[in-house]
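Hello forum,

I keep getting stuck at the same step: I have a sequence, I want structure tokens, and every attempt I make locally crashes halfway through. Rather than fight my setup again tonight, could one of you with a working pipeline run this one for me? It's a single chain of 115 residues.
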Amino acid sequence: MTSEEHEPLYVISVAARLVGTQAHILRYYEKLGLISPRRSQGRFRLYSPNDLERIRRIQRLMDDLGVNLAGVEVIMHMSERLSQMERNMHELEAEAIRLRQLVQAMGGAPDGEGD
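Reply #2:
Ran it on my machine without issues. Output:
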């Protein structure tokens, strides 16, 4: 993701209009912890394109799949955990490759041998 996707650009009224909802709904989502808009120095909520996409995902879960807010919370949390686990797995795979290359460069046993 680019930093532009996380750049807070929209005040609550604009964000609500862009996602087709009302400001009080966005405040409620924030109260539930489903979204976390940044705050300006004047304490105004500011939403990024990434925040708007998250709100749209919440709306799709509720409108298209009939998931209630408690279910949305569970799905969003599990989705975030899965994404984090995938990032961790990729980091571990890259580290394993690096270590294999280091062992081979040091004259160690090639992959699969010496286990």
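The two ends are 39 Å apart (CA to CA). If your local run keeps crashing, start a new thread with the error log.
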